[in-house]
Design brief:
Two copies of one chain form a homodimer. Chain A folds into two domains: 175 residues, Rossmann fold (3-Layer(aba) Sandwich), CATH 3.40.50.720; 111 residues, 6-phosphogluconate dehydrogenase C-terminal like domain (6-phosphogluconate dehydrogenase C-terminal fold). Helix content of chain A is 53%, strand content 13%. Chain A is built from eleven helices and nine strands. In chain A, strand 1, helix 1 and strand 2 form a beta-alpha-beta unit. In chain A, helix 7 packs across helix 10. At the A-B interface, helix 7, helix 8, helix 9, helix 10 and helix 11 of A face helix 7, helix 8, helix 9, helix 10 and helix 11 of B.
């Protein structure tokens, strides 16, 4: 499919793309790019055979590459675009993996004055708490959702090629409007992360006073798992998608107000109906999730 | 330890107590009690060998029992006390498994005018989403916390015997003040359940509009697991412990206000610190949890 794949940022996601692309024969060679502080991770990536080679010079990294994957955290996308601008090739396809798409497109517009038509915004809904190339695996994207959010001037042939690229790595590809993507992910991913961080922040301070965590059980462990996610990555995602997230926080506070009122007025019938609706809604989610 | 164990309510918890008591030789015989609508479950319990026999007549159930375990949902404890009152034996020990202890003690006071000194309030911090005797297992309480909340007039010999009973079933027993228990459980269990129900209630309605659940991932699955808990049981627990829960809901709304403000003011440094504190606090919890 591609001759030379350039992966900018060979971490969990970038490394797993390289592994899957190689496994499925989607490119002839893979080069990794990173900064000076990424050197050891890049060396590991090469030793593990995840990439064929790496360089700390972006011009060398993109030289001859017909596909360039931006797999850095969303907060550094703009500076990567700035570095790529003088090296931009019309014959290559560029894509990214950012969790928020509006912010990536806005970053491109700020750097280029427009969004290059050979840049295809994409987002694999897959991940893990661990990071770095040592956490990368061949099948991170297998049977996982991938969303492509093309904009008006996105080259449809480039978009189709990126779609096939992900499908061949085993992903279930959807094409979606940018704003819709950011709204859906704010609801199903960003808000839950904020809630988990908020709860554990609050209870952590209580625990310092009176050691409550020793009485927390397995349900608490699962509920708070996403509060162990990378704080750097998540502060950036939340900041990048705040326009979608803030109204959802408002809405959730309203939902908590509702439950508080039901408790205050002893309206156990309505409380039961709210909890029952939630349980049924989760079952609807599970039925879809497990059928993937 | 006991001659005849009477289990009132042979569900997940009552059934697992019966299984563990038998496995560890803590009683000679076990009788189950339930209502007419529980007959099939009680038959199953007898067929499975969880109990030796059952009856729908409480007077027969408690006859000759030197230990009576109230393992019904917290909302029905008061009516069980009322039924037990004319049958109450000073030579038996009574105990319960309710998730909220203040409400159980208040129920006893309403029925008896005081809390009988041979009633030992207890709470095993263990459970599952499934219910009924078919979900019961031998080792539900193994290495799990059990909290005993004696009050002033609780007979210390009865309390010690219940402590040994649970220790022999493998539980890690703590003795705690009633109010402290209800505060700790509100924070580590009841509030997380309310949050999970609230989030899934809110997102379920969104999903009806625009099918967002198909893009939710594994993190969402874990985060919302407790929203699949039994709505009947949880509306009762929340209502029974609302005095502890409502201030925590208020506090959590304040925490969400804080994060919302950080997003609005682009204070990513403070956002990072909040998320990092939460991640470290969860690690502190995990270190304790995994060492149990």
């Amino acid at each position: 499919m591609f001759n030379r794949l350039c992966v900018i940022g060979v971490g969990l996601i970038g490394g797993s793309i390289a592994r899957a692309a190689r496994q499925h024969g989607l490119c002839d060679s893979i080069v990794g790019y990173g900064r000076e502080q990424d050197r050891q991770n890049l060396q590991t990536a090469k030793q593990l055979g995840v990439i064929d080679d790496y360089t700390l010079e972006l011009s060398k990294a993109v030289q001859g590459a017909d596909c360039v994957v931006l797999a850095t955290p969303v907060a550094s996308i703009e500076s990567i675009f700035a570095l790529l601008k003088p090296l931009w090739s019309d014959s290559a396809i560029y894509t990214d993996v950012g969790s928020t798409k509006g912010s990536v497109i806005a970053a491109a517009e700020r750097i280029f004055g427009f969004v290059p038509d050979n840049f295809v915004p994409a987002h694999p809904i897959a991940g893990a708490e661990q990071s770095g190339v040592t956490a990368s695996v061949n099948d991170l994207f297998l049977n996982k959702r991938l969303i492509i959010t093309p904009i008006k001037n996105t080259n449809p042939i480039a978009a189709q090629k990126i779609q096939r690229f992900w499908e061949q790595m085993g992903s279930l590809v959807s094409v979606m409007d940018v704003v819709h993507h950011d709204g859906v992910l704010a609801a199903t991913s960003h808000l839950p992360h904020i809630l988990a961080f908020a709860l554990v922040d609050m209870l952590g301070h209580k625990d310092e006073q009176s050691e409550i965590f020793q009485y927390a059980a397995g349900g608490f462990k699962d509920f708070t798992r996403i509060a162990s996610s990378d704080p750097t990555m998540w502060k950036d995602i939340c900041a990048a998608n705040k326009d979608e997230i803030i109204p959802l926080i408002e809405q959730l506070k309203g939902e908590l107000d509702k439950i508080q009122r039901l408790l205050e007025t002893n309206d156990t019938r309505q409380l039961f109906e709210t909890f029952t609706y939630a349980r049924n809604a989760r079952q609807r989610f599970l039925d879809q999730f497990d059928n993937n």
